[in-house]
Design a protein that fits this description.
This protein is an alpha/beta fold. The chain has a single domain, classed as Alpha-Beta Barrel (TIM Barrel), CATH 3.20.20.450. Helices cover about 50% and strands about 20% of the residues. The chain has twelve helices and ten strands. An eight-stranded mixed β-barrel has the order 1-2-4-5-6-7-8-9, surrounded by four helices. The structure holds guanosine-5'-monophosphate (2 copies), manganese (II) ion and sodium ion. This is PAS domain S-box protein.
Length: about 250
């Protein structure tokens, strides 16, 4: 209850920030993208996990202004990176199901891109399988329009929900992100290895990019690489870091 009230004041008190986790090409070791992850620093309790406050933000409807702030902040950072001469990388932003139920979502995105001069081709929106499957028609109609604008779509936490393979193709989904619970269990757990391999093969046959998430060990990296996974994220390379640190990381790679 107190957290819920504090959340109402968090935006105007500038308690939110964005951390970035690099996405790495397994062959070149280059940073080819970044996932934007929201952080809330509570004045008393310090950092509170999004797994705790995102559900509160969804219950209260605050998720909409907060998510709009996230997207605009990410676009502003991205413009600054380009202006200071760094490689143009793709940035991924997590979207909540509630955003897709907003009638003005697309116009809001267009307004943000216009204000920040963001190239839609360099934004990827991450949604979970359950977002798509629970709100099928609304979400799919919106995805179609996002795709038409050039925005890329990734299915996050892939393997944890129920996906219909037909929609992956029909809506030209760009990327599957294998959930880190499976990566954590490879190569020891046979089921996780099989699911990971099946997902990689599915992605290859549909022409989708594939990202292994939560890679923490060299053994996991090698297993993924040998199975044909081209892109990874995880603590082995970097945890999510504040924007100023991510900028340094990007600069060192140029
Ligand atoms: O960064 P961390 O592992 O603490 O994130 C926990 C969860 O919070 C992840 O599932 C992630 O997708 C989600 N999350 C992080 N940032 C955002 C955001 O900006 N919007 C939404 N909707 N979810 C986010
Ligand atoms: O559900 P989603 O993929 O959006 O979750 C992103 C979250 O995963 C980030 O908040 C980040 O903190 C966490 N994460 C990223 N890499 C690793 C990793 O290698 N190990 C663990 N345990 N968590 C990770
Ligand atoms: Mn994600
Ligand atoms: Na995930």
């Amino acid at each position: 209850f107190t957290l819920r009230n504090d959340l109402r004041k968090a935006l105007q008190n500038e308690e939110f920030s964005i951390h970035y986790q690099p996405r790495i090409d397994v062959n070149s070791n280059d940073i080819i993208g970044a996932e934007a992850l929201l952080r809330w620093k509570h004045p008393e309790f310090g950092f509170i996990s999004p797994t705790e406050f995102i559900p509160l933000a969804e219950e209260t409807g605050l998720i909409i202004p907060i998510s709009n702030w996230v997207l605009e902040e990410v676009c502003n950072h991205h413009r600054q990176w380009i202006q200071s001469g760094m490689n143009k990388i793709k940035v991924s932003v997590n979207f909540s199901a509630l955003q897709f139920l907003q009638k003005d979502l697309l116009q809001t995105i267009i307004n943000i891109f216009t204000r920040t001069k963001m190239d839609p081709n360099l934004i990827e929106i991450e949604i979970t399988e359950s977002v798509v499957m629970e709100h099928k028609d609304t979400v799919l109609a919106t995805i179609e329009k996002m795709k038409a604008m050039g925005i890329q779509i990734a299915i996050d936490d892939f393997g944890t929900g129920y996906s219909s393979i037909s929609y992956l193709k029909k809506f030209k989904i760009d990327t599957l992100k294998i959930d880190r619970s499976f990566i954590k269990a490879i190569p020891s757990d046979v089921d996780s290895v099989e699911l990971t391999n099946a997902t990689i093969q599915l992605a290859q046959s549909l022409g989708l990019a594939i990202v292994g998430e939560g890679v923490e060990t060299l053994e996991q990296l090698i297993t993924l690489k040998d199975s044909g996974c081209q892109e990874v994220q995880g603590f082995l390379f970097s945890k999510p870091v504040p924007e100023k640190d991510f900028k340094i990381m990007l600069n060192n790679k140029v």
